[in-house]
Amino acid sequence: MSFLRLINSDAPWVRWTTFAVSLLLGAVIWELAGRNANAVFMAPLIGDAQAPGAARRLLEFIGDSHFHDAVLSSIKLFATGFALALVVGIPLGIILARLMLLRVALESYLLVLYATPMVALIPFILSILGFGFWPKVLVVFLFAVFPILYNTLEGARSVKPELLEVAGSFRAGEWSIWRDILIPYTLPFALTGVRQATGRALVGMIAAEFFLSTSGLGEVIMIASRTPDMASMLATIVLIAVLGVLMMRGAQALEHRYAAWRGVDG
Amino acid sequence: MSASTSSAVTAVKVTNRLSRVFAGRAELWVKIIAGVVILLIWQIVVGAFAPRFVAKPLGIASVFPAVITDPDFLAAVASTLGAVLQGLCIAVVMGVVVGIAMGRVKVFDRLLNIYINGFYAMPMVAVLPLLAIWFGYESNARLATIVFAAFFSIAMNARDGARAVPLEYLEVAKAYRAGRRYVWFDITLYSSLPYLIAGIRLASGRALVGAVIAEFFVSLDGVGMYILSHARSFKHNEAVVGVLALAAFGLLVDWTMNWVTRRYLPWSRRT
User: Which H or E run contains A56?
Assistant: First the structure.
């Protein structure tokens, strides 16, 4: 009983030990599973020289120029699609919030698009636009743009009418209304959309690399799955997972940083 | 003030005045008119600039009745939705057990949190080849993908729900010397239900995406494959009906979850 109480206590050393034990347990389970399973199904975490595991392979990848190219091509795809989603999603969201008629007209349709699984559009993109870089960018863009657009729209919509009325009665121009009211007010909401969009864009990136012309990290996984070279596959998956967690954390930090800008009752 | 900004201001004023005129019940008409305009633009632009096989609203409308009654299409829908529902059930049972255990027992939380969060943030497409190798290129791989896509968001939400049990309830239960069984099943479970519903909602979207991707990847009969094969053979109108079926399922789940929350979970803090 006292042991149960101890491991559930909030003392920092208990917390950190549990965390370390958790990592260690995961690693041991992976290693044992990898060593005992058929090499076609599972690779160990570390392994030995004959049968290198995922961690060894990841270290090898660091010095491998092919792998560098793959990572760079994935990053280029992600960044281009995501940047386009930002450039389109945020201004369009504010414009829609500003022009009430347009918003009422389009809002429900945007919501339907937001709810539609974008992967289902990949076959159309493939058969209309074919292979190449830009069709893949379009996939990333489509995955990322709707959360950004929708959250920006919701944010810009909640701008207090008093602010706009005061600005109007001082004859503020449209540009200064945007610069001093709409953009600062909407930013925290837009960042919520950005956080949701990073995860989706990453899914879009991998999906595009799988199902359109294979390239980047998706291609590394595909080639490894055909061999099958489980160590390379697991190493790449771990890398993508780490990338996903890091980007999620980064976007969360950004969101928290500007959360204070959401007015007191906003 | 330059001429362009003043004209922009006028444009904003005019449209906002217009929308006030249209306000109230007329909103519906605005939406309908906008829908018609969107479809018209789609029809005209695609008709003028795109290859002939690209889907157009009139083309979709003309094939719609045939597709909806096509036994192949119905079988595909049944196969995909059946797998999604089955996968969701498995994920809910596992996710609730793991999530509530994590929410109530700190050791479990500290042991599992990094894995649950890590797998949640990981794009599930990336593990698709792995699941295909493990579960074979057949429907088990799809089910595994669905469970994988759904489990982590349900577990995370169940955990948050179990942690958000109001302290007063637990104190009252303690004051009356309620057994652990009552604390878990009569207080924790109910109080975390709204969170769980939110988790299921999130998970069902992910599960649907997982099912479609898995069908693409392992060439399995279902809505995803229906879309893929028709898009490949340049029958885009038929393929779009498949997309509509997916969107309809997403909206239906959203609507159902909203309704369940409103009707049966009045203690939910959502409005």
Answer: helix A54-62
